[in-house]
C-alpha cells in the first residue's frame, strides 16, 4: 500500500475516533425527550409489531427503528447506549469528510475539514440525539465519496461495480431518510460542474435511476403518511435565523458569525489571488450539497406544505465543513496558524457543546429520564399508577414509563387500554380516570404523573419555530383531582422535576 494512502487512512481513523469521543462524552447526562422516547418505544417492539406500526406511521424512520431494535436488545435502553449509535455515525461521517477532502485536494484539506466538521455545533447535537440524523450525515458523506471516487476507478468492470455500489448506497440512504433523495440533484450539479468527471454521466445516471427505483416503494409509503408532519410550522420571519444559525450552528451564534467571516475573508483572498483546481473541485461538491437539499425543502414548503426543519438537513453539515476547511487552508499558510484558528473556533463552540449535554438540554427541558429513575426507586408492586396530560407533551405522561418499562414492573396501571403495539400506533391512548374497571378507591397508593405547577402562562419557541403556550396549571384545580377526592384519596406527597410533577395519593383515614 502506498505511504500516502496509508497516511490518509490513519488521518481518517484518528479524526473519526476524535469525533466519536467528543460526540459520546456526556451523552448519558441529558434526559430523554419526546422524539427519543419514540425511538425507545418503537425500537423496543417485536419485528412484527414494528412492521405493523410502520404501515401506519413513522415509516420515514423505519430503517433506523429496525436497527435500534437489535441494538437496544443487545445493549439496553440507557441514555448512553441509545445515543452511542449516533456518536459512532458522527465518527464515520468525520472519517468520510477527511477522505473526501483529501480526494478533492490535499491531505491538509482533508484533516482540517474533518476537524471543522467535528466542531460544528449541529454535529455535536446529532451525536447526543437518539434519532437517525447522525446516520443521515454519514450516509450523505460516503455516498458522495463514492460519487467522487467512481470515475477514477480503472477497468470497465471495476468501475461498473463502483457505480453499482453507488446505486445500492443511494437506495439505502433514501430508505434511511427520504430527504436524502435531494442528494441526487446535488450530485447531478456536481457532475455538470466538474469537467473531469462529465464522462461518468452515463454510469452515474444509470446508478441514480436504479437507486431511486429501488427506494420508490418506500417513498410511496412515506408520501402516503405525509400528514404526520402536519405540525411543522409555515415559513415566516424565523427562517433567516434558522438558516444562518440553527441549521449548522445551533446553540452557538458566535461560532456562526466567525464561520461567516471566515468564508468571506477566504472568498476575498481567492478573488484577489485567483482560485486553483482544489478550490473549484471543492465548490463543485460542497455548494450543490449545501444549497439543493435546503432549497428543495423550502420550495416544497411554499408550494405544497411546510416541510423545512433545521434538523432535517443535518446531512448538509459535511459540505459546510468542506467549505470551512477550504477557507482555513486558503487563508492560513502554516499548520500553526491553522491550529490557532481552529482553537478559536473550538473555544467558541464550548458553551453550546456543554449546553447540549446538560440534564435538561432537550426541547422544553423534558425530563422523562429523571422521572423514570424516580419511579424505579419509589414505586412498589401493587401501587396504582395513572398518567395525566401535560401542556408541553404531545402525548401523555405515559412516556415516562416508555423510557424503561421495567421501572414500573408490578404496578397496577389504571389507565392502560389496548397497547400501541397491538393497534399499530405510535403511542397508547389513556382511559378516562372515571373508568370503573379499576376503582380508584381500591388503591392504597396512587402515583399520578402530570404537568408541573405553573402560576402564569409560559411560552416556549423551539428552533423548529414551534411556539408552545403552556397555560397556568394547578393540580388541585383539575377535574382529575376532583375525581380522586370523590374516590376518597388525598395528597400525601408530591415531587416537582423540571417540567413534570409526580403526586402520591392515599385513602383518607
TrEMBL record:
Protein name, UniProt field: Mannosyltransferase
Signal peptide: none
A single MF term (Gene Ontology): pentosyltransferase activity
Membrane topology: Multi-pass membrane protein
Cellular-component GO terms for this entry: plasma membrane
Regions that span the bilayer: 12-33, 84-102, 108-125, 132-153, 165-192, 204-226, 246-270, 282-303, 309-328, 335-354
UniProt keyword terms in alphabetical order: Cell membrane, Glycosyltransferase, Membrane, Transferase, Transmembrane, Transmembrane helix
One GO term of the biological process aspect: response to iron(III) ion
Keyword Cytoplasm: no
Nucleotide-binding among keywords: no
InterPro entries: LipidA_mod_glycosyltrf_83
